[in-house]
Each structure stands twice: as C-alpha cells, then as structure tokens.
Design a protein that fits this description.
Length: 366
C-alpha cells in the first residue's frame, strides 16, 4: 500500500500527515530547534569519533581486543554523523534535492549504524562475560585477529539486514508544494509490519536479552572478584549499553505505535518520530565522551596528544629566542658542586679566582 501522507524524517519508517499549508522553509521554532540539534550532533559526533578513530586506529601502540570493538563502534557512529547534513538540509528546505540513491542510502546508513552498534554491544558483553568466567582461556585465545574477523562479520550481517531501506525507500514529487519527498513506500501493510517487527526484535529486543543474561553472570562473578582491573571494562560497557537503550527505545516505541496509526493522533506520532530519530542520532555523538571519560587508556592517549600539541605550539612560538638545551646533570656534577661550596666556606667566602674557575669549569662543562 502506498502511503499518502506528506512528510517524513530521513531514516524513519513512514510518512505521517502534516498540514499541507506548512511553508516549504524552516521558519517555525520546532524546525529551527531540530535543525540546530542535528547540526550540533553532526559537529560533535564527527569530531569526537574522528579523534577516537585516529587515536585507537593509528596512535595507540598497544592495541587490544577491546580497542578493536570500540574502534568499530566509532567508525559506525562516524559514518552516521556524516549522513546528518543531508537530513538537516531536507528539514530546512522541506524538499529532497539529493536524488533517489541518496534517499535510499541515508536511510541505509542509519539502520546500518543501529544494527552494527547493537551487535557490537552484544559481542562486547559476551566477550566480557567469557573473560570473567574463563580468564585463563580468554587471555590465551582472545586475539586482535579473531576480533577483526568478528567485526567484519558484524558489518556484513548488518549491511545485509539494512537493505529494506533500498527496497522501500523512494522519492515522490509533491505537486502542491512543488517539492520532493523522501519516504518509505510500502506496497502492502504486511511489508511494513515485517520490517518494523524485524528491526525491533533483532535490532533491539533479542540483543538486550542476551546482554542482560551476560550482565547477570558478570555481576555474580564481580561479587567474588573485586579487582579494579576487572571492573573498568565493565563500567565502559555498562555506560555504552545504557546510553544505547535510552537513545533508541523511543524510536522503536513510536515505530510500533505507528503500525496502528489509526488509534493515535497524526501530530502526536509525528512529534514522536522527531524525538525518536533525534535521540537515536544523539547516541552517535555521546559514545566518544564515554570512551574518553570511562576508558583510562584512551583518556590517557587523548591527554597525551593534547599535551604534545601544546608543547609543539610553545616550541614554535619561542623557536627564535630559544637556547640549545644543556646536557642533563649527573651525580658527579652535584659532588663537584658540593666540593666547590665547601671550598668557598673554607676560604671565608673569599676563594681564589683560580679555584673558583676550576670548579665552575668542572660543573658546567661535560
């Protein structure tokens, strides 16, 4: 069944009715606020995830399985953040000007981010659970190469189950407004139900059931083993999962409610879609802060990177007046210095010039 409503947000499931008299420009406060929030998410998320990718992928000398997981999450979030400008322009102009392929591709990127993120969180939970239950086995068998293979499989599976965006997403001209709309065109109601339920079950419900099961096991083990080293990865994992849950649950609730849209007011569902998609987008810019504040290794690398930048800028600023550095003092230098001070005391602070010069020469010349 082809939907006949008039407006949608990029990445969402259907088009919900909005009065056709609305001007094709972003002048109302809600539109301006939404566009502003999306721009902030784009800037913060792109920069934050780019820093994580650069440090975890290129600057960290000691890589680990955990950094492989977090690097993949950062790549997923970075790709999604880079798709946000298209949505911002669409919201401002109320006109999809990027063509049919980009209409499909932007929605595809959103759900690729959703599936890859939740699948990686499941893998992180299972990995942490195995490391807690079988620490010796995990230490010997957990390798970066195996983690990279698992990450590759996650990306392939996530891309495969995100293809409905290419199947149902389309562009349709709006003859009254003289604009184009990007939306999901479900030929049958059953297609809509299958897509929404599949995304909820496999992209949210089942993964969280697995995560909860892992948490139960981990918490029981942590009561026995109170090692701080064991708890630190657990804290990062907890923060990531809670953030994902809070950011994506509104989206799925509204999508399920929309299956029976006759029972709800169209404006209410439209506002719910806006909030759901915005919160889902915000998840991609929050993760870098969780890595930085919760992860000691990455946080230390970020601080070291900033410190080196500051030192380089200071050196460049004072390069012209800077003197060559003196060689480091050794133990014998201090012994000579003490001997020289004793000589001064012996001569009642009136030492011979030759003695002073001799000792000074010994102290300052290597």
């Amino acid at each position: 069944m082809k939907t006949t409503e008039e407006e949608t947000i990029s990445g969402n499931d259907t088009k919900l009715a909005v009065p056709s008299s609305a001007p094709p420009t972003c002048t109302d406060p809600s539109c301006i606020s939404l566009a502003t929030v999306l721009v902030i998410i784009f800037i913060v998320g792109s920069l934050g995830n780019a820093v994580v990718i650069w440090i975890a992928g290129f600057k960290l000398k000691k890589k680990s399985v955990n950094t492989t997981w977090y690097l993949s999450l950062a790549v997923s979030d970075f790709l999604f953040c880079f798709s946000l400008p298209f949505t911002v322009v669409y919201r401002i102009k109320d006109d999809w000007i990027f063509g049919l392929f980009m209409c499909k591709f932007i929605s595809f990127i959103m759900f690729l981010n959703m599936f890859s993120s939740i699948f990686l969180l499941v893998i992180i939970s299972v990995d942490r659970c195995v490391a807690v239950i079988f620490p010796v086995w995990a230490q010997n068998r957990r390798t970066i190469r195996k983690a990279s293979v698992i990450v590759s499989l996650v990306w392939i599976i996530s891309a495969g189950i995100s293809t409905p965006s290419f199947t149902f997403r389309t562009v349709q001209p709006h003859y009254v407004k003289q604009t184009k709309t990007c939306f999901n065109d479900y030929k049958h109601d059953q297609d809509h139900v299958i897509v929404v339920v599949f995304r909820f079950v496999f992209g949210f419900l089942m993964p969280f059931l697995i995560i909860i099961a892992c948490y139960v096991v981990i918490i029981r083990k942590l009561k026995i083993n109170q090692s701080a080293k064991t708890k630190k990865p657990f804290k990062i994992m907890t923060a990531l999962i809670v953030t994902f849950f809070l950011c994506w649950i509104p989206f799925h609730i509204v999508a399920l409610m929309e299956l029976n849209h006759e029972k709800y007011d169209g404006s209410f569902l439209h506002v719910g879609q806006v909030i759901g998609v915005t919160l889902a987008s915000a998840n991609s810019c929050l993760n870098p802060f969780l890595y930085a504040f919760m992860g000691r290794t990455l946080r230390g690398s970020v601080l070291l990177f900033c410190r080196r930048l500051r030192m380089q800028s200071t050196r460049k600023a004072g390069a012209q007046c800077e003197q060559p550095p003196s060689p480091p003092l050794e133990k014998k230098d201090f012994q000579l210095l003490f001997e020289f001070l004793r000589t001064i005391k012996l001569y009642n602070f009136k030492p011979k010039k030759t003695a002073i010069k001799k000792h000074l020469f010994s102290v300052y010349v290597a």
